[in-house]
Amino acid sequence: MTLRTALVLRGSRVFGGLMIGGAGLNTALLAAAPESYAALGAWLDGPAALRRLWAGTMSAHPYVWVPLVGIGFEFGIGILALARRPRRRLVGLLGIALFHVGLLVMGLWWWALPVLALLMPLLVGTWRDIDLHRSPSDAVTGAVG
Length: 145
Known about the structure:
mainly alpha, 7 helices
């Protein structure tokens, strides 16, 4: 294993753990105070359509949307980011990036921009790991690793 691959794996574990921790936090918050999701939408600094979307989903139906997005999606991409197989890890890291792009839209620039900046080298490194695991015959047969 190269030093680059080791660093990519370590960084992916950090972000995977962060997302799994976020899923745990959402689980605890949903169990203890589901009404708090209505208040969380009040700080949205995005467009009015986004505030309406939050009010109609997370605020109005936290027992549906929080398990799907705040727990299921976060946990799933966190687990994928922990994978040793680079293709699975790439899916997890792309999911984490997508999640943080959503946070940008919601106005959480101070959190999402640094996370996205730190994710970029991990995405590139994982992409390179995928290319390294392909053999010349894979290009001919279309096999995936």
